[in-house]
Amino acid sequence: MAKKPKSVLEESKEIQLAVELIQFGARxxxxxxxxSLSRDRLINLYKELRGESPPKGMLPFSVDWFLTWxxxxxxxxxxxxxxxxxxxTTASGIQAIIKAYRLYLEEIPHDEYEEPTLSLTRxxxxxxxxxxxxxxxxxCETCGGEFVVQPYAQYHFVCGLFHVPNRAGKTRKxxxxxxxxxxx
Amino acid sequence: MNTxxxxxxxxxxxxxxxxxxxxxxxxxxxxxxxxxGISQEIAxxxxxxxxxxxxxxxxxxxxxxRFRFDDVAILGMLxxxxxxxxxxxxxxxxxxxxxxxxxxx
Lengths: 184, 105
What we know:
The complex is a heterodimer of chains A (184) and B (105).
Chain A: H1 8-23, H2 28-34, H3 39-50, H4 69-88, H5 93-107, H6 120-131, E1 136-139, E2 146-149, H7 172-183
Antiparallel strand pairs in A: 1-2
Helix pairs in contact in A: 1-3, 4-5, 5-6
Chain B: H1 3-27, H2 29-36, H3 40-47, H4 51-58, H5 72-79, H6 85-97
Helix pairs in contact in B: 1-2, 1-3, 1-4
C-alpha cells in the first residue's frame, strides 16, 4: 500500500517540533512516539543538533522514581502546570508537555551545570503513567496541594514537604562541594 | 504617604499590570493564562484592549489585580521558615499552579 505523500509544510512543522524536543534533551523513544519522521531522519537530526549519537537502551520504566522525595516534588510541580494548561487553554498533547516543561524549568532553582531533576523524557513518561493509571494524584491533607502518588495510596495523604527526610538536600555532590570550599 | 501618592502608585501598578498582561497574551496566550491565572476569555479581552482603553481602565483608584493566595493556612505555612528553604519556594509553586483561574461570570 502506497503511503500518502506528506505535505511539505506538515513535515517542516514536524521537524521544528523534533528540533525543540531534542534541544530539551528528549530521548529517541519519545521522538519516535510523537513525531512521524523516520527513525533514520530523527537520528540524523539528533546528531546534527547535539554532535553525538542518541543514547541507546530502554527508557526508565519504573514508577518508583516519581515517588521518591525530591523527584516527587518536581514531578508534582510539572504536573500541576501541565494540568492547568490542559484545563484552561487550547494546548494539548506534546505541545502542552513542552509548554509545561518550559514553565517548570523557570520555577526550579537555576543552575547551568546541573541537569534539572525532572528531564523532559521523564515528564513525558509521567504523563503516560498517569494516562494508563499506573500513577495518580492525591490532595495533601495539610496543604491541599496535588501530588503524584501510587493508585492505592491516595487516601489520607500528606505530602513530602511535611516529611522532610533528614538527608534531604545533602547529596554526595553537595558534600564534596562543601569540602572543597573548606579546603580552599 | 498621602492619598495622592497612594493613588498615583495604584495607577502605576495597574498600568504596568495591563501592559505586561497584554504583552504576555500577545506573545503566547497559553502561557499568559497560566502566569496570570486568568481564563482564556479574560486573556482575549485584555489582549484586544486599545491603548486608550488601557489608560482608562488603569486610571481608577482601586487595584485591578487580586491577591491569589486566599487560604490563610497555606499563606502562613509558606511565609514561616520551613526546614528546607529552597523547597518552600517549590511548595508555593505547586500550590499556586493549581489555583483556580479568574473568570468572567
